[in-house]
Design brief:
By secondary structure, the chain is an alpha/beta fold. Helix content is 30%, strand content 15%. It has a single domain, classed as 3-Layer(aba) Sandwich (Rossmann fold). It has five helices and six strands. It has a six-stranded parallel β-sheet with strand order 2-1-3-4-5-6, sandwiched between helices.
C-alpha cells in the first residue's frame, strides 16, 4: 500500500510506543510524527503550536493528520485556531477529557471542542472505550462533521486492546488519501 499524501502521526497522552499502530505505520510508510515536549502532562496550547509548526513545513492541501485519543481533541482545537484547509484527518478513539474516567494532569483540553472541522474527517470509535462513551464519541463525530466508523468492542483502539499493525485502520486512512 502506498500513500500520496503527507501523513502526520499525532499520538495522544503518553505518546504511542513502538508496538502501537501509529508507530508501526510511521515506520512502515515513513509517516511523520508530530513530537510534543511533554507527553505525560500536556498543555493544549503547546500541542496545537507543535501541530501548526509541522503543518507549515508541508503543502497543507496534501496533509492528512492521524490522531489518536487526546490528539483528536487537540486537532479540533488546532482547526478552530488556525482554520487550515488540509486534505483530511483520521481521528481514532477520541477521549473525553470531560469524563471522570479521564486521567488527570492535562491542561487546556476541556471542554472538548465541538467546532465543525474545515476538512474531511473520519472518526473511528469503539463501543467499549474506557476513555469515552459511545454516545459522547458519536456527539464528537457529529459536531466535527465527521464520518463515524464504529468498529465494535475494540477498547481504546490501542496496543492494550490488541491493535498493533491494524490493517483495517490503514484501509480507513486510505479513504482520505
Amino acid at each position: 500500500m502506498t500513500f500520496k499524501s503527507t501523513i502526520l502521526i499525532i499520538p495522544g497522552l503518553g505518546n504511542s510506543g513502538p508496538q502501537h499502530w501509529q508507530s508501526i505505520w510511521e515506520k512502515q510508510f515513513n509517516f511523520i510524527r508530530v513530537e510534543q515536549a511533554d507527553w505525560d502532562a500536556p498543555v493544549c496550547d503547546d500541542w496545537i503550536e507543535n501541530i501548526q509548526s509541522e503543518v507549515k513545513k508541508h503543502n497543507a492541501a496534501d496533509i492528512i493528520l492521524v490522531g489518536h485519543s487526546l490528539a483528536c481533541t487537540t486537532i479540533a482545537y488546532w482547526a478552530k485556531k488556525y482554520n487550515v484547509k488540509i486534505k483530511g484527518a483520521l481521528l481514532v478513539a477520541p477521549s473525553d477529557t470531560e469524563a471522570e474516567s479521564y486521567p488527570p494532569g492535562t491542561t487546556g483540553f476541556t471542554p472538548v471542542s465541538l467546532n465543525k472541522l474545515p476538512f474531511p474527517t473520519i472518526t473511528v470509535v469503539s463501543t467499549n472505550d474506557f476513555y469515552v462513551t459511545f454516545e459522547r464519541a458519536q456527539l464528537f463525530a457529529s459536531a466535527w462533521g465527521s464520518e463515524l466508523v464504529n468498529i465494535g468492542d475494540a477498547g481504546h483502539i490501542n496496543l492494550a486492546s490488541g491493535f498493533g499493525e491494524w490493517a483495517e485502520g490503514l484501509g480507513i486512512l486510505k479513504q482520505l488519501d
